[in-house]
Amino acid sequence: MSLRRGALVVTAIIAALACVPAALADGDPASDYLLSQQTFLPFDAKIPAATSEQLAGLVRNANEHGYKIRLAVIATRYDLGAVTALWKQPKTYASFLAAEIAFVYKGPLLIVMPNGLGFHAPGGATKAGYRTLADVRPASGISGLMTAAVSGVEKLAAAHGVQVRPPVATAAPAKGDDRIRLAILIAVVGGVIAVVLVLRWLAHRRFSR
């Protein structure tokens, strides 16, 4: 019975974790992420890990050095979840997303879509932000969106006296190393579960005696 209960607990945990991506995919995904994160990137755009880390690092640096900003890169209409009507309307979406996360964050918000940038900031700072971003035009493809995002963050921060650059990319771990780490993690988790189940069984046996 102890083994069966342990297996059911493990199965329930795995099922709960599997439901997390589905829950985040509902509604407007960026509003879920930007409640606690500074950067939202497309789910299925196949962005190199080093590029994602550099952009996230740039946004983090801007925040740490005095210019608060959050960023959402929207590559396809599917990145908008249930609000696909705002696809290729970066300015409208910037206002919409700002309202969605306003109870947690009220600072500058930058949106990058294939057809342009959207920006929202408190007070009259929105118009000034658009003037700063006037010459930023996303090129085609995901690399063009990422480049525009970097340029947009740099220009907005510089306009407020904060000079930031993307951090130097670190070498990605080899795939073999990833497999080894995964195998070690699985072994450790399996070992912990086995020890817990054995201890429960011994305690039950001792109690029965």
Features:
four-stranded mixed sheet, 8% strand, 7 helices, alpha/beta, single chain, 209 residues, elongated
Number of strands: 4
Spatial strand sequence of the major β-sheet: 1-2-3-4
Helix content: 55-70%
What's the helix count? 7
Given as residue ranges, the uncertain stretches (5+ residues, pLDDT < 50) are 16-26
Give the overall form: elongated
Indicate the mean pLDDT.
84
Q: Calculate Rg over CA atoms.
A: 23 Å
Strand content: 5-15%
Q: How far from one another are the termini?
A: 17 Å
Structural class: alpha/beta
Order of helices and strands: HHEHEHEEHHH
For the biggest sheet, the summary is: 4 strands, mixed
Write the layout of secondary structure elements.
Elements: H1 2-25, H2 29-33, E1 39-40, H3 49-64, E2 70-73, H4 90-100, E3 109-113, E4 116-120, H5 125-132, H6 141-159, H7 175-208
Parallel strand pairs: 1-2, 2-3
Antiparallel strand pairs: 3-4
